[in-house]
């Protein structure tokens, strides 16, 4: 199975370097090669998302994925972002500290994780802690928590279980606005990767600010994605 062999690899709309970045894949994520065009593969990720990735950024994976990284690590010229997937052999080769190695199938709490990324810059198509877009942020945190989400905000909105408004919303539900998604913290607060504040930030939707009023004006609904092991407290 082929996978990403660099810290972060851009997935592009067309097989050109200047083509739009539609998403990203991080170290150790598997890809299915669908075709080849000059210096690019057309690939599909585990979420079914398709795009073009430079061939030089892909290689055969060195063993089964055993761990995911709880934080960044640097070794042999590679900057491994949060959530990178490594085999046992790679963990030894790259001398990854044990505290960063989490068994790949261990669940986690995406809300607790989210707060660690406050201030990470906004990046269109970004899915790593070097830069997130809104749905890349939610997908990465939930994927780390063993809950698989679709890639785009609209797809995520259509996939989750419907929650009947903020009164029924719980910690960790996803709040959707037109073209945007955030994680609900409770008490009308959300955490999200957004252009309004240039990166990951917390917004209080009840603060009557112009930004909050604008978001509430394009509110579309709330959805729930249940994992096996993390606890979702009521707001």
Summary of the model, kept short:
The chain has helices at 88-93, 110-114, 134-144, 153-159, 210-217, and strands spanning 2-4, 8-12, 21-26, 30-37, 40-44, 50-54, 58-60, 67-69, 73-75, 78-80, 85-86, 101-103, 127-128, 131-132, 161-163, 174-177, 180-186, 189-194, 199-204, 219-224. It has 235 residues and is of the alpha+beta class. A hairpin with a 2-residue loop joins strand 17 (180-186) and strand 18.
Describe the model.
With 235 residues, this protein is α+β, with helices and mostly antiparallel strands. 16% of the residues lie in helices and 36% in strands. It has helices at residues 88-93, 110-114, 134-144, 153-159, 210-217; strands at residues 2-4, 8-12, 21-26, 30-37, 40-44, 50-54, 58-60, 67-69, 73-75, 78-80, 85-86, 101-103, 127-128, 131-132, 161-163, 174-177, 180-186, 189-194, 199-204, 219-224. It has a 6-stranded antiparallel β-sheet with strand order 15-20-16-17-18-19. The radius of gyration is 18 Å and the shape is globular. Mean pLDDT is 95; it is low at 228-235.
How many β-strand runs?
A: 20
Rough shape?
globular
Strand order within the widest beta sheet: 15-20-16-17-18-19
- CATH architecture tag of the largest domain: Alpha-Beta Complex
By secondary-structure content and strand pairing, the structural class works out as: alpha+beta
Supply the CATH class of the largest domain.
Alpha Beta
Mean pLDDT: 95
